[in-house]
Give the backbone structure.
Amino acid sequence: MGCVSNLSEARRKREIEGLLAQIERWYGAAADIASEYAALMEKDPAAATLRVGEFIGKARNANPGQVEALVGGPNHDWIIPVINICGASYPYLDREVRKGGLAQVMRFLDGLNYFRSQDHVEGLHEPWLVADIIVSSGWLYWPGYKHETDILAEARTWKELAPKIPDARSQFWLAYTVMKPQWSSLEVRTRFYKEFPELTDRTLDAVAAIVESESRSEHERKGVDLAAATAEHLNHYDPLLHEAIRTKVQEEKWIKLDF
């Protein structure tokens, strides 16, 4: 249990190094905690994933309690990088390990006001982790993606969008928004899929979880035909992706925790 399979070490290291550089620009204490967690993640991704709650707690405690009381919750700028370091290995770990890490992230989010939880989720990069949080929370922590729609409103061509991608608040939410024709041009969509195949593939896994969760909820609550509900929700995404999404619904890679 806990083995990392087919994991691109170079990709994971680049992601973690980028996250550390980001947080170092913010706060020294939080950067030290993120660095400690990143070192553990490099050494043993499974063990680190199962300790994510501990490091979330350390990052939270780096923020003086009186400050948290004043702003209404923990500083998401300090905690998001810790969760993103966990997310860098999340898709490549055994399901039971992912479950354990997800449960700890959910316990943290469940302890906040839901809109504070949404503030954290809107900054997460890993599609599998975001999807698991969304479906496990019953959509309570869905943050929306206005930041990403604003980016795409100003970047209708690939030439305009490409320079903005490295600074995206969330790799997942940007990829998710690109997949919606109402927000992106055909040129942007096709180039994005080509340039970011791994992110696109995992985002399709997340979309499958979202489509299935939405459709099944309507089926169970309103008696809507499941196939009809699925077809309706698929219509929100690029038609070129519908077949792939249907296939991924059948694969059911997501995790839904019941509390």
In short: The chain is about 70% helix and 0% strand. The longest helix spans residues 197-222. Residues 1-7 have pLDDT under 50 and may be disordered. Residues 175 and 196 are 9 Å apart (CA to CA).
